[in-house]
Amino acid sequence: MVRKKKLTVHILRDKLGLKPSKELLEKLKEQKRIESLIKRSISKTPKTVPEIAEETGLEKPLVLWYLMTYYRHGMVEEKGKTDEGYFKYIWSERR
Prior knowledge:
By secondary structure, this protein is mainly α.
C-alpha cells in the first residue's frame, strides 16, 4: 500500500484547525455548477455566448466572463464565427 505524502498546506491546516468558511464553500460549489452547465452545453457542438446563455439559463455577461476565463486557461477553443459576428466556442479536448 502506497501512502500519499501530505502537502505542507494540509499539515498546517490540520495543525491550526483551519477550515474554509461556509461562504467560500458555497461560492466554489456555485462555480463548479456553472462550469458544469457551460461544459455540458459546448462539449459536443460549438455555440455562441447567447446560445449558451439561453440553454443554461445564465446571464450573457456571466457566460462571457466564464468563457474568457476558460479560454485563457486553454479549456475552451474558438470554432469559427457567425454572420452576426459572434464567436463560437467549444470545450477543449486538450485538457
